[in-house]
Amino acid sequence: MSTETGPAIDTEPRSHRIVPGPKGLPFLGSLPQFGKNPLAFFERLRSHGDMVGWRFGPNSCVYIADPDCIGELLTETERSFDQPALGIAFRTVMGNGVVVARGTDWRRKRSLVQPSVRPKQVRSYAATMTSSTVELADTWSGGERVDVKREMAALTQRIAVRTIFGVDTAADAEAMGRAMDVAQQEIGKEFAGIGALLPDWVPTPGRARIKKAAAVIDAEVGRVVARHRDGGDERPDLLSRLLAAVDETGAHLTDQEIRDETVTLYIGGHETTSSTLVWAWYLLSRNPRVRTALTEELDRVLGDREPEFDDFARLTYTQSVVKETLRLYPTIWLVTGVAKEGAHIGGVPMPEGTRVWTSQWATHRDARWFPEPEEFRPERWDPETGDDIAEYAWFPFGGGPRVCLGTRFAMVEAVLILAVLAHRFELDVDPGVIDPVPSLTLQPDREVMATVRTR
Fold first, then answer.
1. What is residue 417's predicted lDDT score, i.e. its pLDDT?
2. 8 Å CB contact between 84 and 337
């Protein structure tokens, strides 16, 4: 890439040391400040330096902000860092799927799940992504008022149900969607509050709600799995591929493992894309120049037809819009790992048990890596003239061996949905600032209402 629109990246290795962060309170540490506003808290930590010591309750923590150090954390996961024991709300919903599993269990599950989301398989799902979006577009009309968050959630739910479960009934999507909304809210509340420090056996109203939501998810997934097992016919959906997968010993995934991986794929294929699209419409509505550039590309590449999978590579500006949206509003907003014996980052020893944190939100808005970081500027991603962006300065899907398996699926889905809808319509989102709320993913803090304008 050229460096014409951005500063040269310093390639000299940086020396690091841990500097003290906020002192915090006895026992709680900085949990109250973190819980009040995790995004602002991480930005404050970043202002202290690239390697900052702090406490999360009784736990000793280090926050890292330098991309080289972030890359070490991501690429050394499994060797030098463990997945942390996340809260009971998270584990109740996610089970022990590939996102949570460790060691040999993680390697086995990844090898079984990965073939379902390889580029060849994603290509086969593209037609469903486009046709589902066309169905939505056909219901919109100029001058209509729409709830953008609700519309995008319903659309990505429909795509997830069709591609993952191979079914096509509203009840399947609606029941799962309502349960996932509850789950997402409760996971965010527990993670950022005192619930993060409570033992699993302590009952709370939030934990009761999460159990109820998980029971709905379990029932829906169990019903669809049973339908697949009884059907006998080979199907092209993700669930069928999981049911057919065998490990090196010839063993299939158990019913519980099928449930856990299905929920993981559902969240990756629905929650993250839905959130990204809501933020994209919000940003496009407030940046007419970008919206014009986007529609010019769609008119040039698509003409009067709908997008296909092969158009994904041609829609470079549309891809840049999605990437820039993920920079400003990353759906996954933090990464954390627990140091094993002998762990180092940036040449600095990390004592065993130290919890190392980093944040996509804070790193993506660091002016050292992204000039004018608050500006929505998709051109910074142009493959020919864009900024020279340091590796691991942008990591919305994580990285290293545990990079999100659904990255390709999510990018193709977001680009094709945006291409279908923005080719036909402009959405004028109501005035006013919308703030992000960090829960399982980064969600808007209120309704996102918009007026549909026919192009």
1. 98
2. yes
| Nearest Cα to Cα of residue 189 among 172, 174, 204 | 204
454: left (phi over 0), alpha (psi -120 to 50) or beta: beta
pLDDT, tens only, 228-283: 777 655 677 888 888 888 888 888 888 888 888 888 887 777 778 999 999 999 99
Q: Which amino acid is at 259?
A: R
Looking at the chain, the whole-number percentage of residues with pLDDT higher than 70 is: 93
- In three state form, how does the secondary structure of 117-151 look? HCHHHHHHHHHHHHHHHHHHHCCCCCCCEEEHHHH
Q: Phi and psi at residue 82, in whole multiples of 5°?
A: -95, 155
Cross-strand bridge partners of residue 55 = 60
* pTM over the 0.85 mark: yes
Structure tokens at 331: 């759906």
Among the listed residues 190, 146, 180, 185, the one whose alpha carbon sits nearest the alpha carbon of residue 437: 185
Taking the alpha carbons at both ends of the chain, their separation in whole angstroms is 34
pLDDT band at 155 (very low <50, low <70, confident <90, very high): very high
Task: Please state, in angstroms and rounded to a whole number, the distance separating the CA atoms of residues 410 and 330.
Answer: 13
Task: Quote helix, strand, coil % in the chain, to nearest 5.
Answer: 50, 10, 35
CB neighbours of residue 258 within 10 Å: 21
Alpha carbon distance 130, 155 (integer Å): 11
Cα(262)–Cα(257) distance, integer angstroms: 8
Gap between the Cα atoms of 375 and 287, Å rounded: 10
Amino acid at 401: P
84: Cβ–Cβ under 8 A, 6 or more apart, which residues?
336, 337, 338, 355
The 3-class SS string of 55-123 reads: EECCEEEEEECCHHHHHHHHHCECCCEECCCCCHHHHHHHCCCCCCCCHHHHHHHHHHHHHHHCHHHHH
Question: How many Å is the Cα radius of gyration of the chain?
Answer: 22
Contact 350, 62 (CB under 8 A): yes
- Residue whose pair of structure tokens reads 């919308």 in the numeric block: 434
Residue with tokens 């829960």: 439
> 3-state class of 428 per DSSP?
strand
Q: For 342-363, what is the mean pLDDT? A: 95
> Are the CB atoms for 315 and 298 separated by under 8 Å?
yes
Largest CA distance in the chain: 64
96 touches 260 (CB < 8 A): yes
